[in-house]
Amino acid sequence: MNLPHTTPPSVVKGKLYLVPAPLDFGCSQITDLQASMPLGTLYQAANLAHWVCENAKSTRAYLKRIHDITPLCKPIQSMSLVELPREVHKKGDHQGNFDARGLLQAALQGNDIGLISEAGMPAVADPGSSVVRAAHDLGVEVIPLVGPVSLLLALAASGLNGQNFAFVGYLPQDAQERITRIRELEALSLKTGQTQLFIETPYRNAVMLAALKQSLQPNTRLAISSGLTLASAHIVSQSIKQWKHASTTLDNATPVVFAIGR
Fold first, then answer.
1. Domain ends where: 127, 144, 161?
2. What PANTHER family does the record tag this protein with (predicted)?
3. Which residues contact 238 (CB under 8 A, 6 or more apart)?
């Protein structure tokens, strides 16, 4: 007796969710999670048991905060948390130099995965773009969730051109190279009207502000946004001429977004 040939059903692939994190990582203040994060995002995150993350320790801490609002789908200890390789943190993964397909095997087996960084939106001024690329290459649906993005919050609050802008990452650490780069960005901004956004490691905030006041022309506008979404958030946008007469100091422990333009 010949049995009919049957084809096993194909596994429906899971989805990759881009999960924003609050902007208080490493800060002395902790935000009210429900004040800075939509409940829909927290509910979706609570239903994920597979994670690709920048740092497992900070991800567990964030998941505990979510659990205080809505129960997690399973205990954190039994979740799968896979960290991005160390070289991705050092060199970045936005140039296509890291193949992240191996991190998405759970999605190919039908499980949804969350991608998360330590603060803000993963893959925006943070690692994770290689994971998103890999998901597209593997036919895994990518779903970005709503949450705080420091660059866009800073841009909106700057009063600078929000129709034409560029994020240029970190500026050089060497003092003279940093001044040269600042003047290049200023020239581009004054010529094209394009707002230039950049960030700095918090402990160099004061050094960066001093370099900007020293290097930029008097009428160039500089906006700084510090501690966004925190109760102590500080946003100032004024000309360099005004900055030189201001007594503003920057906390060297709080992330800052800098923006220059006209």
1. 144
2. RIBOSOMAL RNA SMALL SUBUNIT METHYLTRANSFERASE I (PTHR46111), SAM-DEPENDENT METHYLTRANSFERASE (PTHR46111:SF2)
3. 221, 222, 246
